[in-house]
Amino acid sequence: MHSVHLAVLMTSHNRRTRTLSALAALHAQRGLPAHATLGVHLVDAGSTDGTPEAVRLLHPSVEVMSVGADTPRNQALRIASRNSRSGGGGGGSHRARPGGPSHRWTHQLWLDDGVELFPDALTTLLGTADAVGGGAVVVGAVRAPDGTTVYSGRRGRSLALVEPGGERPEPCDTYDGRVVLLSRAAHDLVGDPDKVFRHRMGDYDHGCRARRAGVPVFVAPSPVGLCAEGPDAPGSLEPGIGVREALRRVTSVRELPPRQWWVYCLRHTWPWAPLLMVSPYARTAARATIGRWRA
Helix (H) and strand (E) counts for the chain? Predict the structure, then answer.
């Protein structure tokens, strides 16, 4: 494994316990070469539960920036990426504290603060990156407590979840943005998540843009972490809600806001974009209507 200078990008908002657990698991990584460096860039979106203060106290090597509570996750990730570029992104041993950035990073790692990495996660991701070539994106699959895969790469027009292959990396078309390793070369070609996507879809769009730019994308052979709370709340899929409430939820910033969804469809699904644009809203209305009838 070559010299590794890893810039870890994280965001947080009022999830102090989860954020601290994610950082503890990150700093407990094993198997990395002695010369590997790690710099963590956390952007906190207006937490009122003491998250920034707790991180500074328990993980003083982490760079913490506080922004407004109205800053969406995708934008916070862009800010963290900008911070990693302005500061270098490395920083001494991955267990060093404190450790300011001192190296130009070779990789970025998107890490959701709801994911606790397994102890060998970084070794798995970096080893996969070496195996598939330096210009690739490597996605880490994340499991729920019951062992099912809840976040991973995605494949096909239906965005089917890609299970880890067990022995070799699995190719995919795009990805959930919970655990994603970008080589420097891949980032130079694809850039950061697009600012047009405020909360969701930014990771899917990023993966599609990577593929279009000729950047190969693979899922690491084994899962890399645990999402203690499983997937997001059901939102518009919640049984028993009415059509109006279901449509309100599905068009909210946390699901498929129409303007952003149209941009995604236009970029990546033409000539089927008009049909795909309306289909999730029609399915949501139909599902809620049938659910009410059955109830």
Answer: 9, 15
Q: Using alpha carbons, select from 268, 39, 290 the residue that is nearest to residue 157.
A: 268
How close are the terminal C-alpha atoms of the chain, in Å? 58
Neighbours of 7 (CB within 10 A): 31
- In sequence order, the 6+-apart residues with CB closer than 8 A to the CB of 267 are 205, 208
Q: Parallel, antiparallel, or unpaired for β 217-219 and 170-171?
A: antiparallel
258-268 vs 202-212: helix crossing angle, rounded to 10:
20
Query: Nearest-CA neighbor of 225 among 186, 158, 172, 176?
Result: 176
Name the DSSP class of 104. B
Q: Residue 271: is the preceding peptide bond cis (ω within 30°)?
A: yes
Length in residues, the chain: 295
3-state DSSP call for residue 289? helix
- Kindly report the pTM of this predicted structure: 0.88
Q: Which domains are seen in the chain, by residue range?
A: 5-227 (3.90.550.10), 235-294 (no CATH)
DSSP state of 179: E
The string of pLDDT tens digits covering residues 73-113 is: 899 999 999 999 886 554 444 444 433 445 689 999 999 99
In three-state secondary structure terms, 202 is helix
Of 271, 285, 265, nearest in space to 201 by CA = 265
Residue 53 vs residues 16, 180, 211: alpha-carbon distances, Å: 10, 27, 39
